[in-house]
Amino acid sequence: MLRIRGALIAALVAAALPGCKIIKTPTAEEKAAAAAKTAFDPNAKVEAIWQSQAVPYYQKRAGELKDVVAAVAAGPDQAGEKYGNPRKQASAPWTYAVKFTGKVVAADTQSRAATLDVDADGDGKADAKVQIGPALRGTALRDTLDFVNFNEFKNQIEWAQFGKAFNEKANTAFLSAVPRDGITGKTVTVVGAFPLPSGSDLPLVTPSELTVAP
Q: Cβ contacts of residue 189 below 8 Å, gap of 6+?
């Protein structure tokens, strides 16, 4: 009887062996490679939507500067519904898509956070301050889009990196080519976004497009 039991057990073990699979423990290099494939890449995420979705969105959503500023003065929330992202987080400040053409009346190009003061209505006074970088403040470009959502991201860090990547894309796409010398007096055309200004501050516009007339 014992011999029969032993034979049966041996047979069962032998039958099971072909179905067994030995799983190799990954090396540190293999783990790192796998992690790299799944790592969050904010620049790639922005690159994927910039030309096909983001730029057309700003163009369609943007209002003329004088109209947007007047709407903000009348009611920031109502202006945000029309020119901003109505799906924004309730606690987030409003940002507004805007477009204008005007003359550069002053330029601060010595700082890394370089800006142009632009007169858009021809009265000789600045109506907007336009960021030309390379250091761009804020995340207005990200925040004005209604097709991206904080809940799609793993955490606040990824969301912040995503916002910064829009600024980096604007730098590499066109802002790095904006001349730093002799730009005062030039005419610029801008499409972009700005956050709700504080007090009497000029709108601080982060461009999604900026061209300088010859």
A: 99, 100, 101, 209, 210, 211, 213
